[in-house]
Amino acid sequence: MRLLDLLHRWTGGLLGLVLAMLGLTGAILVHRFTWIRLPHAQDPLAGDVETIAAATRKLMAEGGGKVDGIIYANPDFGLHLLRTGEGSGAYADQAGTLVASWHSQWERPELWIFDLHHHLLAGDTGETVIGIAGLAAIFFVVSGAILWWRTRRTFKFRLWPARMSRPAIVMHHRDLGIVMAPLLFLSALTGTMMIFKPVANLVTAPFSSAAEVRQAMAPPRVTSGPRNPDLDLTALLRTAARRFPGAEFRILSLPSKPGAPITLRMRQQAEWLPNGRTTLWFDASTGQLLAARDALAMPMGAQVFNTAYPLHAAKVGGLPYRLVMTLSGLAMALLGSFAVWTFWFKRPKKRAARRNTPPPQQKAAAG
């Protein structure tokens, strides 16, 4: 038990700030569609094919070949997001009129906060660090629950420490942690699943083998002709709507290299994933449908994996679940920051070593 306590404290002291940052940015991002204040951001969704096709044609024409893809408006956010290069992009209303544009992610807070939360602003290396922090968070929840059990009789729930002394902070850390443990575990597990495949395979193993999930997620082997700048995207969208009636158009991705197809992701009503995993691949030259994947027909393990992001980012359950995950994020921020503070700046003073030599009076008497 002493070793477990030592590991818990040292790991928390080293990774606490990373977890605090993840908790705080996660709590902010849960509500990002609420605090992005732009014209038409709260417009109701116009999901009919003709309206979306007209906006797509307009945006492609005005983009001058710079548009790499479009993330279409959704029921919570009434603007299309255009991707026009590394760090650059634009928002447009559902009629295809631009309302904001940027050349760097630093011009849009929702973009750099998202990058900070997912990559620590450091690309794949930052994502790996976050994955390690996620594994540590899972360890903290499990080990913290074991360590809490010894002192369960002194449990007192507080949102803030009674005093800013080390004993009070440690007690607050222990008791707040046990209350929030289920949510913290859910946040850490779902986040780590999206980074480390072995973790995802472990979670989905009771439902499907790793090979089945990998095969279900892999893109089909299709070859497309060269991209046709005059391609009739309206016909392409109509084909997709006939293939999956009632599904929302979510992401249109244009080919980035020769031989790659146009990809269209859709979301069926039964899918939790906000951008859906129902996918169609079209020839970039002719618009012919090359392949289609129904997310609802995927193996159960793949469907379980597809719930990781919506559970992690509170994309299901409406406002009540967003508030619950906000509490989880704020709790992680408190626990992580206080763990670092008590470990590095509020460490207990070392007790003075007892002297084995007798006092001077005893020495004199002995002489």
Automatic annotation (TrEMBL):
Bilayer-spanning residue ranges: 12-30, 129-149, 176-196, 323-345
InterPro entries found in the cross-reference section: PepSY-ass_TM (IPR005625)
Keyword Transmembrane set for record: yes
Pfam families: PepSY_TM (PF03929)
Key words, A-Z: Membrane, Transmembrane, Transmembrane helix
Protein name: PepSY-associated TM helix domain-containing protein
Naturally occurring in which organism (per UniProt): Sphingomonas rustica
